[in-house]
Write a structure and sequence with these properties.
homodimer, 513 residues, alpha/beta, MTTB_MeTrfase (chains A, B), Methyltransferase (chains A, B), methyltransferase (chains A, B), methyltransferase activity (chains A, B), MttB-like_sf (chains A, B)
Chain lengths: 513, 513
C-alpha cells in the first residue's frame, strides 16, 4: 500500500494536482464489519453429515479436471487417484490442503482508503457481474456496449455503499471478445479508485489483468499484495474446465484473490434437494480451493456459492427463492467451519423489470447474504432477469438498499446515549419526543436515510408527479452521471495503461467468439 | 372445538348440504411451525440492561391509565403507587403478575382445520388492518367501503398462505362508525371460515364481538375457548386510554385473546434510539399484560410491538427500515425472555404504490418477522402507504410471498432423500440432474412455487404483454374473486347473525364520528 501511496503522491505534476483540488469528495462507506450474529440454520449433526457426504463424493465419485494435464499432475503428486480426467481425492486430503488458505485477506484499492478486508466478520459489496444485456427506463432492453460499461463503473464509483467496482458489470458486446477485457480493466482502473476484479475468460487475459495491475500499483506491490479478486466458476456438477483452471493458475501464482464458485441451477446442475446441493457445493469448493493451494500455498481464495433453483414448469432459473436462501445460509456455515471467506450472490432476481417482483427477490437475497455471513457479495446491485440484464435503474435502487444492510449490521447501540433513559424521563407518559434534547442531539444520524425512496406525504408525492421507484431511479442515474468526476490519477500511469491497451489490441486481430 | 364441530354437523338441512357438495375445496396451509432458529441480535448483557431500564421506567416514571378508575383500583390493590392517573409499578411486580399469562394459546376457527396456535415456535399470518383508503390498479386511491371490505375478506379466504381472516382489513367508511363493526364481524364470520379479530373501538363493540361469536360458536364454547385475537394499542408513550382499556377488559374477562401493542413512530412516540425504544416498548407491554392478568388471570395475551422510524426531513413515518428490523429482532428476544407470544408487523411499507419500494420494504419486514420469532404477524399482506391504504394488488402479491416464509421456516430436509447421495453418484461429473431418478421423484415438491410471479423466458414474457407484477396481481385479484365460493354455514346460525346485526343497527342512530 505504501508504495502505491508514494507513487500517487510523487507523480503527476500540475494537472494531477489541479484535478485533486477541484475534485468533489465522493463518500464511500467502509466495508461492513458485522456486529450481529449470523443465522445458523443447520445444527452440528447436519453439518457433519454434509461434510461426511462431501468427502464421500470426493473420494468415490471424484471431480473432473478437463484438459488440464498439469493440474492432474499436481493432484497425483498430492496423493489423489487419477483416472483419465477424473480426480478422486482421499478423505481428509482436501481438508489438509486448504489449511494454507488464509481466513481473510486485504484486497488493495489504488485509493488506500477504499481497500477492503475479505473474511472474518466483513462484508464487501460488489456490483452485478456478467450480463450481455442492459436495460434502462427509456431504451428498454438491448445488448450492452462499452459506453454502458463505463456508465456502470461511474455509477459504482458514485455509490456510497458499494465498496468494490466489480468486474464485468455488463458485457461490452461492441468490443472484440479477445480485447474487451483490456477496455474493461482500463475503465475500472481509470474511472474509479475502488478495488476491482480481473478477467477470467482466458489465462492470457488473466495475465493481462496482472500486468495492468502492475502498471497501476507497481510491480513489487502486486507481487506482495492482492489487488484483484476474480471469479473462477466451477462447471457444476464436479467439473473444472481448462479456461477457469488456467485463469486460477495465473491468479494463484501471482498471489491474487480468487472466488472458487460452483455455478448451480438446482435440479439441473445439482440435486433438487437443498442438502444434496450443499453436499455437492462443498465437494466442489473443497476440490477447487485445495487445488489453488497446490498451485501456491497461501493463495487467497474465497468459498463461493452461486446456487439458485429452477422453475420446474418452464425450466427457467428462479432467484430470491426460499431454497436459495437456505443454501446460502447453509453454505455460509460450511465456509465458516473451514475458516474460509465466503461469497454468495447479492441482489439476485428473475424479474424482467425492476418492479415489485425484482425487489422482493432482491431483498430476500440481500437479507440472506447479510445474515448468512457472506464476506464478498457479488451482484449486490443492478442485477436483473436472472443475470441476463444489467439495469441502470435497478443499480441505483439496489445501491440505496445496501445502506439498509450497513445499518442493520451495526447492531444495537447499548451506550448510555443509546439507552436514552434521560429522554424517557424527560418526556414521560403522553408526551412526545420530537423536541426533546436526546432527539435533537441524535436525529441526524439516528435513522438510515434513503437517497432514493419516497417518504413524503401523499399530497406532496402526488403533486410531484406520483413517481414510482423506477421513475425516481431514472432521475438518480442521470444525476449521478452528471455529477461524476473522474478520480485523479498520475498521468504517467494513465499513459502507461493507455499504451498497454493499445499495444495489446494491435497485436492480434479482433475475435468475436 | 367439539361443540362447534357438532353444531355444524347437526344444523343446516338441505341447503347447507348442497352448498357443501358443490363447494370448491380452498386449500389453506397450516400455520407455520418454525424448524429454524431465531436471530438473536442482543446478547444477555444487553437484554439485562433493557429489562432493568424498563423496570426503572415503570417504578420511577410510571404509566398513565387515563379515565380508567377501575383500572387504577386494580393496580392499587396489586401494590402499585397511584398518583392521579399515574401508575408507578414497583420493580418486579409486573414480572410477577404476568406469570399467569399463557405462553401460547389456541385461537379457534369455525372450521376446526383452520384453528391456529399462537406462541412457541408458531407463526400465524393475518392480513392488513386499519386503512381508511383502498387502492387498485384501475381505480387508484379512494375511501374504502363495505364492498371493498367484503372483497378483502374473500381474498383472504382464498389465500392459501394466510391463516387468519384479520379484523379491519379496511375501514368501511360508508357504514356508520357505531355500526360498521357489526358488518365487519358478519363478513368475517360468513364470508370466511378462518379465525378473525374482534372490534376494539368501543367496549360495547367488543361486547358485540363476543356476543356474535357466541352465536357462531355457541355460548359455552366461547366461554371456554379463545375464538378471537383482538388488537389493543397502547397510546405511546406510556399511556393507556379508556377505549382500549375498556375493550381489553371485555376480552380479558371473556377469556378472549388480545395483542397488547405499543404503537410507536420512533423519534416521536419513543426515543430516537433503538435501545431506548425497546426499553419503552418493554415497559408498556409489561404494564399492559400485567393489567390483563389483574382483570383475569390466565387471559391469553400477546406481547405486541408496532414500531417504525420517522423520516426526520418530512416527519413522515418510514417502514421496512433497518431500525425497525432491529427493534423487531430485539422485541422478539424480550417476548421470549418473558415466555409470551410475540406479535409484530408483517408486510409493512411506506410506498404509495405497490412498486419496488413497497416490495423492498415488505420483504425486509417479512424476513425480520420470520427470523425474529413473531408468532402473530398482522399486516402480512395488503398494507400500503404506511397503513393508510389497503391495496388489492399488493394483497395478492404479499400473500404469494407468504409461501416463501412457509418454505424457509421448514428448514433443511436432512433425510436420506434430502441428502440425495444416490443422485450425485448417478449423475457424476459433467452430467445433469433433470432426468435423474431423484429429480423425477422430488421435483413436484422440491421448490416453492409462486402463484403470481413470472419466471418465463424473456421471449414468452414479452409475447404475453411484458406484464409487470402489478398487472399480474390485478389479474389474480379478478380470478380469485371470480372463483370465490362462500363456505357453508348452518342457516340457523346465519339467520341469528343477521338478526343480531339488524337488531343492533336499529337500536341506535347512525354516528359518523
Amino acid at each position: 500500500m505504501a508504495e502505491a501511496g508514494r507513487r500517487r503522491a510523487r507523480g503527476g505534476g500540475g494537472a494531477a494536482r489541479r484535478a485533486e483540488r477541484t475534485a468533489i469528495h465522493i463518500e464511500t462507506a467502509k466495508f461492513i464489519e458485522r456486529k450481529i450474529p449470523n443465522l445458523e440454520i443447520l445444527n452440528e449433526e447436519a453439518l457433519s453429515i454434509i461434510e461426511e457426504n462431501a468427502e464421500t463424493v470426493l473420494a468415490e465419485v471424484g471431480v473432473n479436471f478437463v484438459e488440464c494435464p498439469e493440474a492432474l499432475e499436481l493432484w497425483r503428486e498430492a496423493g489423489a487417484e487419477i483416472d483419465g480426467e477424473r480426480v478422486r481425492i482421499p478423505r481428509g486430503l482436501c481438508r489438509e490442503l486448504i489449511k494454507t488458505a488464509p481466513s481473510s485477506y486485504t484486497q488493495h484499492a489504488r485509493n488506500p482508503e477504499k481497500s477492503v478486508e475479505i473474511g472474518g466478520n466483513s462484508l464487501v459489496l460488489a456490483p452485478v457481474y456478467g450480463p450481455p444485456f442492459v436495460r434502462d427506463a427509456d431504451g428498454g432492453r438491448r445488448y450492452a456496449t462499452m459506453d454502458d460499461f463505463n456508465k456502470f463503473v461511474k455509477l459504482g464509483y458514485m455509490s456510497k455503499y458499494l465498496h468494490h467496482s466489480g468486474g464485468t458489470v455488463c458485457e461490452p458486446t461492441d468490443v472484440a471478445v479477445n480485447k474487451r477485457h483490456l477496455d474493461m480493466l482500463h475503465a475500472h482502473m481509470t474511472l474509479s479508485d475502488k478495488p476491482y476484479m480481473g478477467s477470467v475468460t482466458e489465462p492470457s487475459r488473466a495475465a493481462d489483468s496482472v500486468e495492468m495491475s502492475k502498471i497501476l500499483f507497481g510491480e513489487e506491490f502486486v507481487d506482495q499484495n492482492a489487488v484483484m479478486t476474480s471469479l473462477i466458476n466451477i462447471n457444476s456438477p464436479l467439473t473444472f474446465d481448462p479456461i477457469m483452471v488456467g485463469a486460477l493458475d495465473v491468479y494463484a501464482k501471482a498471489g491474487q484473490g480468487c472466488i472458487i464458485s460452483p455455478f448451480i441451477v438446482g435440479g439441473a446442475m445439482a440435486p433438487v434437494s437443498v442438502a444434496g446441493t450443499l453436499t455437492q457445493v462443498l465437494a466442489e469448493v473443497l476440490a477447487g480451493i485445495a487445488y489453488s493451494q497446490l498451485v501456491r500455498k497461501g493463495a487467497p481464495v474465497i468459498f463461493g456459492c452461486f446456487v439458485t433453483s429452477i422453475d420446474m414448469n418452464s425450466g427457467a432459473p428462479t432467484f430470491g427463492t426460499p431454497e436459495a436462501s437456505q443454501i446460502l445460509y447453509g453454505a455460509g456455515q460450511l465456509a465458516r467451519r473451514y475458516g474460509l471467506p465466503f461469497r454468495s450472490g447479492g441482489g439476485l432476481c428473475a424479474s424482467k423489470l425492476p418492479d415489485a417482483q425484482a425487489a422482493y427477490e432482491t431483498a430476500h437475497t440481500h437479507n440472506a447474504a447479510l445474515l448468512g455471513g457472506v464476506n464478498f457479495m457479488l451482484h449486490s446491485c443492478g442485477w436483473l432477469e436472472g443475470g441476463l440484464v444489467s439495469s441502470f435503474e435497478k443499480f441505483v435502487m439496489d445501491a440505496d438498499q445496501l445502506g439498509v444492510l450497513h445499518r442493520l449490521a451495526e447492531g444495537i447501540d447499548m451506550s448510555e446515549n443509546g439507552q436514552a433513559m434521560d429522554a424517557i424521563r424527560e418526556v414521560g407518559p403522553g408526551g412526545h419526543y420530537l423536541g426533546c434534547e436526546h432527539t435533537q442531539a441524535n436525529f441526524k444520524t439516528a435513522f438510515w436515510k434513503t437517497d432514493l425512496l419516497d417518504y413524503k406525504p401523499f399530497e406532496t408525492w402526488h403533486e410531484e408527479g406520483a413517481r414510482d421507484t423506477v421513475t425516481l431511479a431514472k432521475a438518480r442515474v442521470e444525476k449521478l452521471l452528471n455529477d461524476y468526476q473522474q478520480p485523479a490519477m498520475d498521468p504517467a500511469i494513465r499513459e502507461a495503461l493507455d499504451e498497454y491497451v493499445a499495444r495489446k489490441k494491435a497485436a492480434e486481430p479482433d475475435a468475436f467468439v
